[in-house]
Write a structure and sequence with these properties.
The structure is a homodimer. Chain A is mainly α. In chain A, about 65% of the residues lie in helices and about 5% in strands. Chain A has a single domain, classed as Hypothetical protein af1432, CATH 1.10.3210.10.
Chain lengths: ~190, ~190
């Protein structure tokens, strides 16, 4: 057990570094940029609160585990703002390769059985095809929208985001998992676009 | 549904403030104090990783939900460092009253059915008598120990923590939920006490 615990705590200590990865968006009080660890916490809370919007075949426990894990690769690969110059709804090949390498290294710190299970959850989230992943991804996309609404437009103004960009880069993924929520949120987002 | 969503997003926006509540301990790189939102994320990850240490009657999904919620009251009531001057293993009556009022206000932002369910999870965590709460509480106590070990003693040195204080304020709760882990961690903590 000692070796297993040593591996587990090595992973948990490495994970601490996600608290220093900064995202484009700010806290709702505008005081500073959000980091990816607290963003992941917020997403798990979003999952709990918006669980009543999930289709019946969604397993909330798996969704929460996916959301807790989903950004760990940013420890090595960084966060790519979805509205940055040249941004699209999809990561570049180089970014995807960097994230794959990060996943291999970081999940590789765990005991092999656990590393494989965590990696499978991350792969499922990234592939975005199962009901759990689609719901999780829609939460990952709607939370920054709500942060920007609270911040009077926030990073949309910084990046000059258009309605088309909001709909294609963000709305399309939110609509897949949270269609009724997207209708509600979009109405409140549009007046704040630059 | 519109009113329900408005209440849910009001709660989720208020929850964002937990990212500005600072704890006594620091990140493992020592760069700054940890906030309670990213601490809660780290605990959910601890729960996933140390799930193989949980008794069979522990429901990991409930544990994760408890951990995501457990510090929200600090938005109003603040974080009380367990090793601060006059600190004990238990919160003061005044602190408990402040946390009860915070729970009423913050969970009260949600639709009533959801607010009651979240409040019940928080009450269960605080009472620390069910298998899920005991496991969750032991994670909440062991993570700061690991942060201090990574920080060469961290807040133990700042507060002049003794072996007896570590055992009574921290070890007793960890031992209830994670007895084998506490044996392993304690050996690594003792040489770093001041």
């Amino acid at each position: 057990m000692t070796d297993r615990l040593a591996q587990q705590f090595s992973f948990l200590q490495e994970a601490d570094r996600l608290k220093t990865v900064l995202r484009a968006g700010r806290l709702t009080d505008g005081s500073r940029r959000e980091n990816s660890a607290e963003h992941s916490w917020h997403l798990a809370l979003y999952a709990m609160v918006l669980a009543d919007q999930a289709p019946a075949d969604v397993d909330l426990s798996r969704v929460m585990r996916m959301l807790i894990l989903h950004d760990l690769v940013e420890i090595d690969a960084g966060d790519v703002p979805i509205h940055a110059a040249g941004g699209t709804a999809h990561a570049s090949d180089a970014q995807q390769a960097a994230e794959e390498a990060a996943a291999a290294r970081i999940f590789g710190l765990l005991p092999p059985d656990q590393g494989a299970a965590f990696r499978a959850l991350w792969d499922e989230f990234e592939a975005n095809t199962t009901p759990d992943a689609i719901f999780a991804k829609s939460l990952d996309r709607v939370q920054p929208v709500m942060q920007n609404i609270a911040n009077d437009g926030g990073s949309w103004k910084e990046y000059g985001v258009t309605v088309d960009q909001l709909d294609s880069r963000v709305g399309a993924k939110i609509r897949r998992g949270l269609p009724a929520v997207w209708d509600w949120v979009r109405l409140r987002a549009l007046p704040l676009l630059p």
